[in-house]
Amino acid sequence: MDLRQVKTSEADFGLLSYDPSFQNTAPCRSAITYIDGDAGVLRYRGYPIEELAGRKSYLEVSYLLIYGHLPRPNELAEWLHNITYHTMVHENVKKFMDGFHHDAHPMGMVVSTLAALSTFYPEAKQVHDEGSRERQIHRLVAKIPTIAAFSYRHSVGMSYIYPDNDLSYTANFLAMMYRPSWTAHYTPNPVLTQALDTLFVLHADHEQNCSTSTMRMVGSSLADPYVSAAAAAAALYGPLHGGANEQVVRMLQEVGSKDKVPALIRQVKSGKRRLMGFGHRVYKNYDPRARIIKEAADSVFAVTARNRLIDIALALERTALSDDYFIKRRLYPNVDFYSGIIYQAMGFPMDIFPVLFAIPRMSGWLAHWQEMMMDEEQKIARPRQVYIGPGERHLPEPTAEKS
Ligand code: CMC
Fold first, then answer.
1. Pair 341, 310: CB distance under 8 Å
2. Mean pLDDT, to the nearest integer, of 293-319?
3. Chain segment 246-266, per-residue pLDDT in tens
4. Which residues are catalytic?
5. 39 partner at 20 to 30 Å CA-CA among 6, 71, 113, 140?
6. What is the per-residue pLDDT for 243?
7. How far is the CA of 345 from the centre of ligand 1 (A)?
8. Using CA positions, which residue lies closest to atom 18 of ligand 1?
């Protein structure tokens, strides 16, 4: 705001920074996630992502993001209890979801159902009440896998499966997705459960990305966290953000074989299309999450069949990383380049990929929302603009208009 004192005259508005898409604007100070895009470094609350992935469960990482430290044993027990206790949704949520068209995209259902939760928990409007905030955090982290699985079951015309609170967070999600309705229990494959849990850790937060900034933006008007999270999920839905993993698989399927890779690269270089899963606003180096996912792929393929798309993806990566177009622009594979291939091998349909991103990103959204609510420097978000429309002009006189 001090820039505004730089004026040409008393009547002058003062200096204003023009920064389309906030490429060089920090709207907050944050202690949650650190990224060094040039070096390819990602840390949650100081811990390198490489140390957390595979060694800490998603719910431990979720606690870390929200509370700032890894949970001590009693804190973890309480956190697990609270999340497990809130996995059920009101029966009317089921009825609400039944209203969606049979071929509705699961992400559209997730966005709408998150917003609908606001009507079930009116006390969530008490955003200045710390206890209320914490209850909504428990509910949102706990219920998003249930809503996600229900959205899938609805889209394939299968009955909903209630949460099984004897299972871990990730195993329970897989059970709600795949348990046949005629069986009482279903234990998902432990290797696949572990792989998905690691993917959840990798997707849990990424500082001021488009959806998290949306969570902060909507939350800054003191809207409740359900509608704020719905807005964040809507931002995540786009193909340039959380929808990219789905687009990567579609692109690889279209390419079909390794020998068609050069043709795709030519199309990308001529500006006809983007190479989905490549490039990042912040990373100008290999996305560390993509490296971990690529390494995890083999453990998944050992259980499922090898997804042949991985060979096309590897050829594509090799070709792109040795091509001047990509080198000059510092375009590397991002988190979405390999995640879709693993999801597909695990049997997830493509429509559900962005939903698989939304489940763990809920922790990041909530950690940032909580941080913003406690930050005395924050007010309602309200960017300025540089007006380029017409100067003052007037409607014709009413009498002239009649004639
Ligand atoms: N394929 C081809 N060219 C690209 C790509 C790409 N994927 N990404 C950037 N470029 C080019 C772009 O055309 C531009 O070239 P030029 O300078 O000649 O005009 C230059 O690189 C800079 O691109 P930009 O659009 O200014 O970069 P940005 O920071 O605004 O965009 C991005 C970042 C992620 C939206 C973009 O890289 C992209 O569209 N990638 C594909 C979609 C994707 O994979 N999204 C997932 C992002 S990671 C997960 C997440 O956080 O959601």
1. yes
2. 92
3. 899 999 999 999 999 999 999
4. 241, 280, 336
5. 71
6. 86
7. 26
8. 329
Instruction: Work out which ligand 1 atom sits closest to the CA atom of 337.
Output: 44
- Per-residue pLDDT reduced to its tens digit, 260-297: 999 999 999 999 999 999 999 899 999 999 999 988 88
CA dist 240 and 244 (Å) reads 6
Number of domains in the chain: 2
- Give Cα 325 distance to the centre of its chain: 28
pLDDT in tens, 113-150: 999 999 999 999 999 999 999 999 999 999 999 999 99
Q: In angstroms, rounded to a whole number, what is the distance separating the alpha carbons of residues 198 and 296?
A: 9
Residue 108: pLDDT over 60 = yes
**How remote is the CA of residue 294 from the centroid of ligand 1, in Å?**
20
Q: Which residue has the tokens 């380049």?
A: 337
CATH code, 301: 1.10.230.10
Q: Is residue 135 part of a domain?
A: yes
Q: Are residues 131 and 230 in the same domain?
A: yes
Q: What are phi and psi of 44, to 5 degrees?
A: -100, 120
Domain match, 157 and 64 both: yes
Token digits of residue 350: 């493509």
User: Do 204 and 312 belong together in one domain?
Assistant: no
Residues 75, 58 contacting (CB under 8 angstroms): no
Q: Is residue 205 part of a domain?
A: yes
The CATH number that applies at residue 153 is: 1.10.580.10
Q: Are residues 335 and 198 both part of a single domain?
A: no
Kindly state the helix (H) or strand (E) to which residue 311 belongs, with its residue range.
helix 309-321
Answer yes or no: is 180 within a domain: yes
Determine the structural domain holding residue 64 and report its residue range: 33-239
pTM given for the model: 0.93
Residue of minimum CA distance from atom 16 in ligand 1: 329
- Residue 334 Cα: closest atom of ligand 1: 48
Given 179, 207, 239, the domain boundary residue is: 239
Whether 205 and 281 map to the same domain: the answer is: no
Point out which residues pair with 43 in neighbouring strands. Answer: 34, 48
Q: What is the pLDDT of residue 100?
A: 97
- Are both 160 and 226 inside the same structural domain? yes
- Do 159 and 306 fall within a single domain? no
- What pLDDT does residue 399 have? 81
Q: CA 306, CA 365: separation in Å to the nearest integer?
A: 34
Q: What is the pLDDT of residue 401?
A: 58
Q: Give ligand 1 pocket residues (Cβ under 6 A).
A: 206, 209, 240-242, 244, 268, 274-281, 329, 331, 334-336
Q: Which one of 237, 240, 326, 353 would you pick to mutate in the ligand 1 pocket, going by the greatest count of ligand atoms within 8 A of its CB?
A: 240
Whether the per-residue pLDDT at 403 is higher than 60: the answer is no
Pair (55, 150) in one structural domain:
yes
